[in-house]
Amino acid sequence: MKLYFKYMKILMRSQMQYRSSFLMVALGQLIYPFPLYAGVVLLVGRFGEIGGWTVPELTFCFGSLLISYSIAEAFARGFDLFSHMVRTGGFDRVLVRPRSTILQVLGSRFELNRAGKLAGSLGLYIWAAANLDILWSIDKVAVAFFMAAAGVFVFSGIFVLAGVWSFWTISGNELLNILTDGTREMARFPLDVYKSKIILLFVFVVPIASANFLPLLYITGKALENRLLYAFSPLLGLLFIFPCLLLWKTGVRHYKSTGS
Q1: Domain count, the chain
Q2: pLDDT band at residue 18, thresholds of 50, 70 and 90?
Q3: Of 10, 105, 147, 152, which is the most buried if we count CB atoms within 10 A?
Q4: Cα distance between residue 135 and residue 196, in whole Å
Q5: In terms of residue numbers, what domain contains 23?
Q6: Where are the beta strands (DSSP E) in the chain?
Q7: Cα–Cα distance between 71 and 152 in angstroms, integer?
């Protein structure tokens, strides 16, 4: 971890060399959540509610998801951009260094300007939490925390899968964007507004429901049965990272270098 923090320090100093550019990007990231949120509000204004969900509930769902995505995007972006390292032969240098490949790729990219998106998402999240028609308790606060944490692990796992994909396709990240950008866009709304097959996909294959829909049912009191299962559902998201890392190690073993 000492080495990882040293990586972060170097990357932060590099990004702050162009402070005006950094501030403009961070400002753009700060504004980013609000046009998306406006789409949610307009839909609710047109139909009154969406699947029985109110504006604060939808905002809480949306804000939690964007918080998770912002953190994962800031820290795990090295895996999403890993295909460039494979194409240029940069991964060969990683392999000869006496440190974990996961640590080195993770530390190859840190996007501090995502703090703007995180700040905007936190603003929406706090407003929604204050306006939810529920009585907050310790267990609900804990579930809300692990709900966001599970989202970080799910999105980070998807970024790792994008890196794994690069071992065989060299440049196939656009297909994996279905799981990153596509998942983020679909999970803006509680999953029960979609068909059952979509829900099964996001519960058992890419468990974003564990960081979104399932714990939200517990927090809002909409889960009338098996409430403990919904409370502990974020564990699925936290565990998702482990098979992704195993696939990464499989990809490393099959790496053939660029030949250059």
Answers
A1: 1
A2: confident
A3: 147
A4: 30
A5: 2-254
A6: none
A7: 6
